[in-house]
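As promised in the previous annual report, we have extended the structural survey to additional targets. Below is the entry for NtaA/DmoA family FMN-dependent monooxygenase.
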Amino acid sequence: MTKQIHLAAHFPGVNNTTVWADPRSRSQIEFSSFEHLARTAERGLFDFFFLAEGLRLREHKGRIHDLDVVGRPESLAVLNALAAVTERLGLAATVNATFNEPYELARRLATLDHLSGGRAAWNVVTSSDAFTGENFRRGGFLDRTDRYTRAAEFVATARELWDSWTPDGLSRPFAHRGRHFDIAGEFTVPRSPQGHPVVIQAGDSDEGREFAAATADVIFSGWGSGGYPPGRHSTRQSSLEAGKAFYADVKRRLAKYGRAHGDLKILPGVSVVLGDTAADAREKAAEIRRRQTSPQTALLTLEQIWGADLSSYDPDGPLPDFDPVPDSGITQGRTRRGDTVAIAEKWRALAEEKGLSIRETVIEAGGRQSFVGTPQAVAAELDAFVQADAADGFILVPHLTPGGLDEFVDRVVPLLQERGVFRTEYEGSTLRSHLGLAEPAWKG
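The corresponding structure token record, generated without further manual editing, is:
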């Protein structure tokens, strides 16, 4: 049976994904930017529009990290405004389960679901970051091992609150007694149009996969421990196999929680570069990578791994010959995943093999463009990944704010429709209907 492809749009912001030097780049905080990308996603019949979250501006060597630009506005406030200028598009907010409380957040999400007619989603993230916690007078209060236990209880508590109103509009008192939350009272917002807002989980660690299998409706993630997309030195076949392995691993965990294969959608984040020819697309992709990784950005990236001040190094010169300094604290508010010594060894081997400079190594190792080619080739490849059970669809992360999705919607979406693997119109009005998810049964 031919699978239908799910598509979503991620609003680019911090990090070096966005090419801010491009004259087409606009503000990441003005409402017109959010509106443009959301309207484009809806024109392309995407399932949802997705916002990330940052609760503190990152610092590097004691200074605000330049790539944070002017920070990020609060996601749910933006989405409430977007609900007024869109009609069918799902609206997903990343909200931290560590630095919020169930009653307040459940109320805000239910309100968005009502205002949008059933299009709200919550991307659940966690944090054990004491640097961010200082904004909440909670620095270091939650052990890293407790992040997901609190998040699981948080989601369960929110669902109890959403279920405290009957489907026919009657309110009933609630009471939750647990390790992390002990609350009782009456919820102020009636049951929302899609029963519960959609729950998304971002992360690909083992505990993250287990949390998604038990709790989430969608998982937004990379593929495998090395993340996704792969570097340019990886082959398309290896990334397809990594996707299939990730997909099979997460789906097999569902049965343990009494869930069916289709109850969780797997949507990896990807980027796309299009060209009139394959050579044109490759050239554009290479130029985008260079512009995403300026000489300054290359050194900053290296400093995050090496944990040392490398400002005296030439970005066009060789990598440092000393090992990284673990837990140096040179970067605050961002955690570099994995063994930094192992990453450094891998990067040195790559640089030696190909004769790369610091900047070239960072570009090569980071290879952001997941799908590069003509519109026809990209449409075929996206379809192939989904039909091979390497994904249920994709969350597109464009390199331009806010017009980076325009070309994909104009040139690739029609080809997917011609292949019969993407909708030609919205069939329902709620996000759950777009994703093919059943409305949760009321648990009275």
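The first helix runs from residue 31 to 43. Confidence is low (pLDDT under 50) at residues 223-235. These points will be discussed at the next consortium meeting with the crystallography subgroup.
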